[in-house]
Write a structure and sequence with these properties.
The chain has about 270 residues and is α/β, with parallel strands linked by helices. The protein is about 45% helix and about 20% strand. The chain has one domain: Rossmann fold.
């Protein structure tokens, strides 16, 4: 195949996959990705219980499972978990962590927009920070509806990482100034300048390029066929536990962002 043909076939979804494959090496270094305290773990447990209840042996599909952080939270609560990710380096780390921690979680290579999982198979489908990256969320939501059992539940944890308010911009500027002056703790590196540019380029071309607002996501879920949709913006307990890992202005900037959980159900009949 010629270089021209290869470039023509290398689309946005391929770029996203390549980006997260490269990010795998440092993914767990960042607060907000890996969990750094039992206090934070407990806060996540309470969020999941609030929307899904105890696992009690029910099946859960963790989409874009990354290094397995959410999969392990679900496993803690008694779900039988399958983690699906399309980045092999992420899966390798997830499997290693599960093995080291003696977790019985199945991690498989797969696409969140075309899972290849059976119809009516899972009691719960869960994802964190996936929706904002979707190229075709309507198709993805239809896929998630398909693999859920009747009455099964979807839990999305996400945010608007595009639109910033005045407070967030102020805190970000103060944080950057404090780091340059050596007065504040530096942010955890999230990759090279080239990777940051790639991230911005991807974000400008996905479906939610103008920001994944909770109301817009919920509306699209409703149109797809989900029911009993609930938007939960009370993630303050999780934020407080994560904030201990950042400087004060970074924590305040994060708190100012539009972050949320959305629970939705597949109709029972």
């Amino acid at each position: 195949m010629s270089d021209v043909a290869e470039q023509r076939n290398y689309n946005l979804r391929d770029e996203i996959k390549a980006y997260w494959s490269e990010r795998a090496a440092t993914f767990d270094l960042s607060p907000g990705h890996e969990i750094f305290s039992e206090e934070e773990r407990a806060a996540w447990h309470r969020l999941i219980r609030r929307h899904l209840g105890e696992g009690a042996g029910r099946t859960a599909l963790d989409l874009a499972s990354g290094t397995g952080v959410v999969s392990q939270l679900l496993d803690d609560l008694g779900f039988r978990v399958t983690g699906l990710d399309w980045a092999e380096p992420m899966l390798e780390r997830a499997r290693n962590k599960a093995r080291e921690r003696r977790r019985k979680i199945s991690f498989r290579l797969g696409d969140a927009e075309n899972t290849m999982e059976p119809d009516d198979h899972y009691d719960a489908v869960v994802n964190r920070h996936l929706v904002w990256t979707l190229v075709d969320p309507a198709a993805a939501f239809a896929e998630w509806l398909r693999v859920l059992k009747p009455g099964g539940m979807l839990l999305i944890v996400d945010g608007d990482f595009v639109n910033t308010n005045a407070l967030e911009r102020l805190f970000s500027k103060l944080g950057a100034w404090g780091q340059r002056a050596g007065l504040l703790k530096a942010d955890t590196p999230s990759g090279s300048r080239e990777m940051m540019e790639t991230h911005r380029s991807i974000l400008s071309r996905v479906h939610f390029s103008r920001g994944a607002r909770a109301e817009d996501v919920a509306d699209l879920l409703r149109k797809t066929g989900f029911v009993d949709i609930q938007i939960d913006t009370d993630l303050n307990e999780i934020h407080r536990t994560q904030a201990k890992n950042w400087n004060v202005f970074k924590a305040l900037a994060r708190k100012s962002q539009h972050r949320y959980a959305i629970r939705a159900s597949k109709p029972s009949n």
